[in-house]
Design brief:
The complex is a heterotrimer of chains A (about 600), B (about 200) and C (about 100). Chain A is built from 16 helices and 6 strands. Chain A is an all-alpha fold. Chain A has one domain: Cytochrome c oxidase-like, subunit I domain (Cytochrome C Oxidase, Chain A, Up-down Bundle). The longest helix of chain A is centred in the N-terminal third of the chain and has 37 residues. Chain A is globular and about 80 Å long. The longest helix of chain B has about 30 residues. Chain B has 6 helices and no strands. The mean pLDDT of chain B is about 95. Chain B has a single domain, classed as Cytochrome c oxidase, subunit III, four-helix bundle (Four Helix Bundle (Hemerythrin (Met), subunit A), Up-down Bundle). Chain C is an all-alpha fold and about 100 residues long. Chain C contains 3 helices and no strands. In chain C, helix 1 packs antiparallel against helix 2. Classes of the chains: A mainly alpha (about 600), B mainly alpha (about 200), C mainly alpha (about 100). Chains A and C meet through helix 6, helix 7 and helix 9 of A and helix 3 of C.
Amino acid sequence: MTALVDERLAHGHGHEAHEELSFLRKYVFSQDHKVIGIQYGFTALTFLLYGFSLMMMMRWQLAYPGQPIPFIGRFLSQGAAAGGIMLPEFYNQLGAMHGTIMVFLGIVPLAVGAFGNYVVPLQIGAPDMAFPKLNMASYWMYFLGGVTMLGSFFLPGGAAQSGWTSYPPLSDIAPPGQTAWLFGMLFLIISSLLGATNFITTIVQLRAPGMTWMRLPFFVWAQLVTSFLLLLAFPALQAAAVLQMMDRLAGTSFFLPSGLIVSGQAIANTGGGNPLLWQHLFWFLAHPEVYVLILPAFGIVAEVIANNTRKPLWGYRSMVYATVFLGFMSFIVWAHHMFMTGMGTVMSTFFQTTTMIISIPSVVILTALVISLWGGSIRFTTPMLFALGFLPMFAIGGLTGLPLGLAPTDIHLHDTMYVIGHFHYVVAPGTIFAMFAGIYYWFPKITGRKMSDVLGRIHFWLSFVFINGIFMPMFIVGLAGVSRRLYDGGQQYAHAQGVLHWNVFMSISAWCLALSQIPFIWNLFWSIKKGVKVGSNPWEATTLEWSAAPSPPIAHGNFPHLPTVVRGPYDYSVPGAATDFTPQGQEA
Amino acid sequence: MDIPYTVEPRPDTGVFNAKLGIWLFLASEVMLFGALFSSYILLRTGAPAWPHGRDEGLSVPLATLNTLILISSSVTMVMSWASLKLNEFKKYRLYMGLTILCGLGFMVIKSIEYSHKFETHHFPKTNTFLAIYFTLTGLHGLHVLGGMIVNGYFWGPGAKLFKKDPERFANRIEVAGLYWHFVDLVWIFLFPTLYLL
Amino acid sequence: MEAHAHDADSIRRQTRIYVAVFGALAVLTLVTVTVSYLHLSTPMAILVALVIASIKGSLVAAYFMHLISERKAIYGILILTVVFFAVLMSTPSLSAWNQRMLR
């Protein structure tokens, strides 16, 4: 076992002898950030696939309402789909859980838990995260939360079915699956809080000598701000979850107003509560949460673009300031989700203003990424295809958000399919494309092999076409006034009749998108064993994970010698240099 | 593999890792209790009438005693850390033991309060005031319990680290102390809000 | 460089400060309880109680939690937290005050 005690690090605490760890300690209850990152990665991808499958069932109901679901219909319980025909209650469960699973069990664990955990210590030149045991605890809390969420489908009455937003009074009186949702969220929140603490401490304390703040790869800045958002925003939802649990289990009325009538009968609780309290607390988390979803994506796209244009990022400093400003602003825009709650003009004006302001840093970041392409020697590698695809998709997502952030237009668009189109553009062809870019990009570092480029291109082009096929029509349907969360896709409404046909188009696109993932899944698993072998830096990148560590990195400590950083993160095409990339740890 | 700055502080930040970590965690706890206090404010300002703590069976004398107990436990906690820095292990044990006892005293008085309320049919579901009272004090109580468990570990089996690495052990007690002081701090605001206003 | 010196003398000096802070906290506790029996108007009572609690809290934070000798890294996090804490505390109530529907 290579001795890794660098002179700078020896504290005289004794370097523990490396007895070979048991299989359980090495691969299951590991404290190594790389193993934990991979655990997060595979678990998150599985949840993403599962959440996607829930949606595909929903899309059948939307395209062909009242038709028995093919193949799967006969396996569903009578309480979910009588005779294979989806019941409204089941549709609502699928809807609520699709959102919950994709956001909390899929994207965040992938973006932060997987990519963050694996890459951040490597990019800052650290041997591991600051708190390895805490890291392990984070993963297993996440796993526990995930199991709780999945198990909730089997409770009487099924899973949570009040939307991923769980608005009371409905969620207060919903079947037991909602309580499981609350417990699941508590586990997930604890996991995120522990993780955020770990990330911030690691980035602040464990940067290698010479790694000043402005020499950090942009990906690390993105993860730092993301962690602050998680740390300070999640507790509000934690509090709300506790209050809703009290309502459901102890009979309190935090969110139940006085005089509430359900199915013709007054409820037993005393009332005196406020449903809007839930909305405030929920959105205090959920708005920063959407920036948690996008910032790591910006980070990955930035890394891939710099590497595949062979030039430094344009406006690195502006991007950093914009990211920090974005993080700050994200805490004071939340009530733009609540314009329709009877808000007064003072509040409404305040939140419209802050919402308009927050679009500025996003535009700064996107513009800087686009300008970074100018004059570059662009290599159209698979990661680069996804990174390039991200740019216009995020632009559409961002632009379509503007009418939602302004109250007058939001009156028409709130709770329509337009909203679904808007946020899916940002998260699906937005963040998820960035995630794919990251997987293709860092796969060689993790495994020492490359994924197939041919399969990668097929994956990209098919996904790009079909994902637009799903979400672009949603703007049309939403503008026509069709509401979200309708289990029959709007069939019963006169104003929907002219646009109903889009449902079939969108559903077919969704199923084709699913099929388009097969090349990716095959590619991922096949390449682990049979991919082309590569050295430590196949992309000829400048950042430390490529230039200072082997592929895969050394099991204990990552680097043969802990690096010293002497230059910025993107010294590509430095005039006079022998190669078109100069690694961060390399003197002239 | 050694992780740097586990024990000695990093020069430019002036802290060792766990100290930064615990402060970050405490920041999240500020937001957690803040969200609950915010809920309290919203519910109270929206209510047509809001009872005085005394009218709902809350005992000011008992809570005052509890406040003094918790403040004392904070002093004994920081004294236990100071004893470690002075290399006086026996004194550390004494002060840490006192801290745990104070925590126990706090919990005992809290259970007396709770059981009295339940006996007189004052439950969380009885009205909004009691709902937020039980939630706030209950969550705070869970935090006290958690702190006691951690402190108990450091008084007992965890104290072995003092022989191997006294500086690292002192750091752990300092970090545990920061958490414990925070729990005291929350009570300092909880007490007047629920019992006196 | 340590944030606070750890030699024996300075620790003993700090110990005396801890005891003094304890005294102050105990006194302030009795003050706040006594004031509560004075039947001040509700806004006044809230203000006084919060001011006293803030003083007590500051003493705990500054001396028991060593904040007074801590450096920028910690302060920065706390200031950031305080700002968002203020936002979280104030906005739901301000929003309710500004609500159109129920008047």
